[in-house]
Amino acid sequence: MAKPLPFSISSQTDSLTLNESDTTMTDLHKRSLIKLAALSAVAAATLMGCGKKEEPAAAAPASTPAPAAAAAPAKPAPLKVAFAYVGPVGDGGWTFAHDNARKALEKEYGDKIVTSFVEKVPESADAERVIRDMAGQGNQLIFGTTFGYMEPMLKAAADLKDVKFEHATGYKTAPNMRTYDSRTYEGAYMAGVIAGKMSKTGVLGVVGSVPIPEVVRNINSFTLGAQSVNPKATTKVVWINEWFNPPKETEAATSLINGGADVLFQNTDSSAVLQTAEKMGKRAFGWDSDMTAYGPKAHLASAVINWGPYYIKSVGEALEGKWTGGASAWWGVKEGAIDLVSMAADVPDDTKKRIDEVKAGLKDGSFSIWKGPIMDNTGKELVAKDVTADDKFLGGLKTYVKGVEGKVPGGN
Q1: DSSP secondary structure string, 196-230?
Q2: Is 351 contained in some domain?
Q3: Cα(11)–Cα(9) distance, rounded to whole angstroms?
Q4: Is the pLDDT of residue 71 over 80?
């Protein structure tokens, strides 16, 4: 509030003068009041600014860091698996069947494994070099897919004890090496049943590869199958002493046909025998794989091997740390490893029915191919009446059964 003025009004004149003066004073007073008010406002603002600091905006509470995700366990490195093939993967037979099984492995286990192969590996010192090289490339499981790799693999296994070895068709094992085989003689027997029925001359021909028990067993089983429907059936054999040699196979097949055989069988790895029969108007079988396409007019059926079940089992054991060496496996129709497929349309229904009965009997154990009496081709008893030959006998077979002409090279 303004203080009282230091004078009083006593007369009209004075009053007029004083009024003017008063007006002047009043204006001054108003201006003073306005100025004072302005100054007061500034002072108040200043006091407020000095008396209270502006509270800073509340900082957003620090977010609680999310708990660190537990580190994912390191993915195990894939198991490296290698295959040594005796022939080319395109042989249409033995090696083709193994390579199909390798592909089945990849489909089964995906990125848990990595597979590789080397084809056309000779059954010689080169095999050992290839196998050791496979191990040197980090392969932990190596499959050798032919009989002639047995000794090279044994030597490698003795030195490379951390590597697992699987040898096809052999009989020697080691702590880190085992053997596996297919009962190919079961497929040969079923082919023989058809051959015995379809042959017009009763003369059958076989192109043999290498004269080892496996092949002798197949020739004999083929003959036993034929004789089960035609007891007078006979078999001629020409050996080429190789697993895969299409020109030699063709030459041998031609020789057999010229010698009177009208149905051909083989234990070689290419489709040359079937193709020769097609060209010469005779009948024949596929071997190891379905060979229908190579000679559709000649083709009677194909005795095939499915290595997939065994390979899947073996690799699964390795992945699970359950693989053990020193063992031997021999799988057939019962395990899904052997079959007879793609029978020709002109094979009689009763023969097809007989094949189905044989398959069922082999699967449930009610039928045995090698049940006596069985004689060799010199008249000597091989298997006595009502006796079933065991695997030891079959594994060492070196002589022909009755009905097969000639002698096994180097055998009896």
Answers
A1: HHH-SSSEEEEEE-S-SHHHHHHHHHHHHHHHTT-
A2: yes
A3: 6
A4: no
